[in-house]
Fold this protein.
Amino acid sequence: MILLDRQIAIFTPNLLAWNGQEPVIGGLERYLHALAELLTEMGYEVSFHQNAHRDFQTTFRGWPVYGYQADQHHLHLTVKRMEETVRGRVLYSSILQQVYYRPRSICISHGVWWELPGYSPAHARAAYENYVAAALIQATLIISCDYNFLNVARAIYPNLADQKVRVIPNFVDLTQFYPREKEQQPRVRVLYPRRLAPERGFDLLKEVIPPLLAEYPDLEFHFAIDKNTPRYLEIFHAWRQKEAHNGRVLYCHPDFNAMPEVYAAADIVVIPSIYSEGTSFSCLEAMAMGKAVIATNVGGLTNLIIDGYNGLLIHPTREYLTQALRFLIDHPRERLRLGANAAATARAFDRRLWEARWRQYISKVYPLERL
Amino acid sequence: MTTKKVALLTTNFFHPTNERIIMGGAERYQVDLCRLLRELGFYVEVWQIGSGWTREFDGVRIRSIPVSRSEYHTFPDLSTAFYENSMAFDYAIYFILTLAYPIAREKSIAISHGIFWDWPGFDLMAGRLEERQEWLRRLGIALTGPQKLISVDTNTINFFNATLPGFYHKWEYIPNYVDTDLFHPPEEEKNSTDTIRVLFPRRLVPVRGINETMRAAEKLTARYPWIEFHFCGRGHDDNAERLMSQWIATQERCFYYWKPLEMMPEVYRQADIVIIPSRSTEGTSLAALEAMASGRPVIAGLAGGLSDIVLHGYNGYLIKPTVENLVAAIEDLARDKAKRQIMGQRAREVAMTFNRKIWAERWARVLETVFR
């Protein structure tokens, strides 16, 4: 029996901010924490390699993190340097910025990301021909977090996608996220638990809020948002200040451990993504908390929400969003029914199931021993 | 107020030269859509390829246009002739998306029944790269004419937004439907000591996973004396059906037959597990929805719209339909009665949200915005 290398290098855009200090808050990062925990438990030695303002070396939760100086407009050069510096086994955290995939490697897809409104067919083609095709050809396996990526990729590259793509939907930690008794409150609270990035649909949501607040005096909106991008936060505050009923537009910047309480205080959770969406953690967590979810029919959200069964699945337009919010505000019993079904379906996305599926592929592609 | 007239364009509802008609999913959809339009007060006619004959089906006149040229999976002569000759009609429905190429009536709606180019064999059909590009180009033009594009699954919408974007707000998701009064669980589930019946309720074609299923049946019937397989569906031709019968004759506890539509609810009710192991070319499958409405757990392939209706591990399984995966998934459910029961019950609950009445409401809403 030959023991093989235990080291796995994970290439990722930003586990930490580019200064190498504070951890970045986002779905990709959460995914990587869980994956690194699993790999460590399986006996691997994990290191992270990421973009940086200038080269750094630090540790995060005991894992070494290496920063490589990067220029926002020439990220491929940084990836190239990582490729040249790191020996041994590599796991690629996303398709987005990678150019090279070495043999016997896994690459993770977090969903189709290039379908933004306003793109032309030429833009779209460049995205899948430059990025998706390379990953499909070079990597051993692509683990996709949703069925939508697999099916879109297969409709473009039937052979390759069918051979290379496997689906492991995202997970929810049921020990943290479960339905809780809600305190009686006079107001109906709608929660937006997402980053302020354009793809997450903040612009769409803010358009529908003023008329609803005017119409329903007992309605309030709660934004649980990040501080990753100062510019987005400025836009948020500028908008909020001008809003006539801003006493009922609340916000907070919770860290991850505070999220169960944030969800618990809500009646309705909106996930109004307009593009670049997988099996969203926020959506799964809201479901596990037994909340009535309104999600758009974008990307992997369609693999979580069945319209009218465990939430409402809408086309991302103002009309549909307004109509869905009105419906749930007016029908408290429907909120409870959808929420109960959401909590039941969330159990099929238990973190332990996710780990069991990942284990199989890790052992296959990165075996620890060879007989 | 005068009655408004709708013309629905399709390729082959009837066979162009004889009266043969196989009521597959698309044909049933068309009949139901025509009924709905009439209920809403429209006069409806169907137009298709043929020698110029006129027939009637279910109270709807079906006219044929004597053209047959097909290139790059489009029918430019048919579409053009339809455009020129249907001026007396107020509105049009393109029952197949590509029929809206090269020209479409102003007040019209086109329907996509799911992606059919996601299987390796399509590469052969689509031909050389330039031909595939030309086909895609025509598909892009087909999207421009109609005012609304209806998709039976979310996967198709996401595919088009990721390849031929620009029609973001034309798309509407109207999933397929099931008559939940007709398809319902049995009054009483049968005794647990009975054999376990696995049902394959599809046509005998490779993309539906027939070959993998036959192999899985061989393995599982050899392993368990209490398991049986029922194949219920037509082949594309007599030969496929004959080959199936020959194979069945060599197998223990494997059965092959087909039943008229009105018998299908009972066929589902008698099954314990229903498999829809499509490799590709799938929308929100009527067979899957009917099985679910009948309270059966479904083992489905992870293709097209099946992930819109099956949640893996909740109301069934979504698997890559290899022989190995099929055997494992069937074994898992066959040996666990409690799991079959809970998944079957949830399947019924989920199917209720794909009730035909909800489908009709969704369609009525779209018709209201375009046909006015």
